[in-house]
Design goal:
195 residues, alpha/beta, Rossmann fold, seven-stranded parallel β-sheet, 8 helices, 42% helix, EC 3.2.2.n1, Cytokinin riboside 5'-monophosphate phosphoribohydrolase, LOG
Length: 195
């Protein structure tokens, strides 16, 4: 039986993207987390989908924790109206604090930063650094090419089926949140060493 989630880190674009469905999904995620009493942990920005998910959570009475590197804060990208805003020196610090504060990780559509952040957390689970689930909210099929690549990694022998199952791709937010709340044992990385 799963315990209710208390916090979720959301990784998403600092742009809105070309499909209005992306912004609608960001609103849905922020509002839903707040309504369920789940703290939102995110990158601290006020622009693009990042700002949208934070604004939606705050508008619904939720707690929002932002973590932003000083270089971005100095460009006036930081969101001023959050429950907590942590200004850190590096991207590494940002990701470490987000990983510490969150019980699970969810990616909305975004660019390379979004992809790098969510796959790092997935890797940390695979390596046994933490036992937290990751998920991709597949809005309009945005993450489908990545899901296909993951299948190819398994078929090609670079990823075990068990490690592939550490991450979920789904277009249904209810299903994603239910999956993120399931307990997950720590993983250990196995190697195909040849003599």
């Amino acid at each position: 039986m799963s315990a209710p989630l208390r916090s979720v880190a959301v990784f998403c674009g600092s742009r809105f993207g070309t499909d209005p469905a992306y912004e609608q999904a960001a609103v849905e995620v922020g509002r839903t987390l707040a309504e369920r009493g789940i703290q939102l942990v995110y990158g601290g920005g006020r622009v693009g989908l990042m700002g949208t998910v934070a604004d939606a959570a705050m508008a619904a009475g939720g707690e929002v924790v932002g973590v932003i590197p000083r270089s971005l804060d100095e460009r006036e990208v930081a969101h001023a109206g959050l429950t907590e805003l942590h200004v850190v020196e590096t991207m590494h610090e940002r990701k470490a604090i987000m990983a510490e504060r969150a019980e699970a990780f969810l990616a909305l559509p975004g660019g390379m930063g979004t992809l790098e952040e969510i796959t790092e957390q997935w890797t940390w689970t695979q390596l046994g650094i933490h036992a937290k689930r990751s998920a991709f909210y597949d809005v309009g099929g945005f993450w489908r090419p990545l899901a296909t690549l993951v299948d190819s990694m398994v078929e090609s022998g670079f990823l075990t089926p068990a490690h592939a199952e550490l991450v979920t791709f789904d277009a249904d937010l209810e299903s994603l949140l239910a999956n993120l709340a399931l307990p997950l044992p720590a993983q250990t990385k196995d190697y195909d060493a040849r003599p």
